[in-house]
Amino acid sequence: NNFFITNLMEVLQRDPDPRGAPPTPLPPLGAATGQPLCCPNHEGKVMEFYCEPCETAMCRECTEGERREHRDHRTVPLRDVLEQHKAALQHQLDAVRARLPQLAAAVGLVAEISRQLGQRRAEAEAEIGSSFEELEAALRQRREVLLRDLEATCAAKQQVLEAQLEVLRQGQESILSSCAFTEQALHHGSATEVLLVQKQMGERLRELAARPFPEHPHENAQLEFHAEPEGLRRSIQNLGALLTTSATAHTTVATGEGLRQAVVGQPCSLSVTTKDKDGALVRSGGARLRFAVTGPDGAAAEAEVQDNRNGTYELVYTPRAEGDFVLSILLYGQPVRGSPFRARALRPSDVPPSPEEAKRRVKSPGGGHVRQKALRRPASMYGSAKRKENPIEDELIFRVGSRGREKGEFTNLQGISTSSAGRIVVADSNNQCVQVFSNEGQFRLRFGVRGRSPGQLQRPTGVSVDTNGDIIVADYDNRWVSVFSPEGKFKTKLGAGRLMGPKGVAVDRNGHIIVVDNKACCVFIFQPNGKLVARFGSRGTAERQFAGPHFVAVNNKNEIVVTDFHNHSVKVYNAEGEFLFKFGSHGEGNGQFNAPTGVAVDGNGNIIVADWGNSRIQVFDSAGSFLSYINTAADPLYGPQGLALTSDGHVVVADSGNHCFKAYRYLQ
Asked: Can you name the CATH fold of 396-664?
């Protein structure tokens, strides 16, 4: 009996933490002969009764006499409760044993990824070696750098996988050892031993059954070497790159209407956002993503994957028949969260209008000939009498600023931008500074001093905010673009020696900085480090020419939208600078401009344009067709410049002539 209890205590004391050392094998059960055990309190007496309140076995003398230890307790013959407790223990055993196939599959999957990772490492190493053979001494230094990066990347991935494997194997060992001991007690132990095992091991088995194990892979095996020999010979010091991501399928999510519903014969899209094992966003592209769509007849539908190169992917498919479609999304061969999905394809006539479409229909002028006339600043713009005389409901939410040089005051403000963090950033041109406000118009920050040195400003015009929150400022008279931290600390400048008069600035989906050069009548595309990617445009009236271009925006297709001031039009180009289309002409009618300035693009691709000479804001669809105006009549604009959309969906515009900025309601 004592030896049995000693063995039981050893089992319970064996490493319950999967992060600790692996458990040692369990010793054989202490009393495997099937002989009944004697009562520890009454020598020579056999334990043949069971006390239910105490959950323990005992002898007859424990139940009799005036000084019995279990007075007033309900006791029953041991044999009457034996089968009941054996069944309960067997149920717990079956439940925890059911975890073993899952763990075995997880171990196999993670081990295979680890093997593939090692194989990819070997393949990449071979590719690195063969690429560097032709470049000899000039490439050796760079080769060693890449090999170190490869080793470090592989080691980091292997460390994650090995840590996961260790946890999985320890959990596997814990379950196996506990199951073995419990089975030994069930098959070879006496009735008393079974009862003691049930009491002592039950809690351990319950804990093992409920313990979470990292069954999904925490890494992937992608590890590749990428090189372009001709380009490498031209830039030897920046040769090569290791392509990999930390994306995992079980944390990656798919979103979009295309997961639920589609229209027959029309392309339908959805978005995939890759995440790592901890759920953090992956901000680089190149992951191995497979998208397959199966129609109601079992045939594959047209499907494609577009890599946005920022950790997100656009998936597009076109159903050719009505019915239910199955959408399978695999990342590194594993289904993303929720995959496969089921979407229903409807005929166009069966699709109800969305709330956004209904809003646009109400908002757009019905006859197509209504226009908001050019408004010049009245003598008393803000008088109460003027407001009472104007019956038009004003869409103005708030206005901030007046003429001056203090915080919250402006002198000829130009560019305006917003951030996902709920900030509004304004280029205060003649005050040589940048001011930052909340989405509600509360002053937050002001930075910048006048001067010609890096970090100083000399007529800031355009402004933008990148994904890191850094503030990018087009400095017109200094002829460069300055980059500041979210707190206004100078970080770097770019474009010096190339730019003649930078006006508008934007950041595309690849992190490239798009700069409109007002004097040179062209557009520059820079990498964040200042390296020139492309340049297009010259002075003139042709498709790829400009006459005093002002501001720029980027739509969700990474297309570049530029306002061509003196040509009274808006021009749209692809990410490489190839002309796509233009819209607008000189005039005061719907869709006409008198020198367009600020521009922004909403989530639906609609283009919002500040019409400087007509002092109004017009809204166009993604193809450049006029939709509507933003109502500014009750508090008229005077020479609007920069324009942007806030994170909560409002339009903000730099009302330059009134030395303030205004926020308007906007129904997308």
From this structure: Neuraminidase (2.120.10)
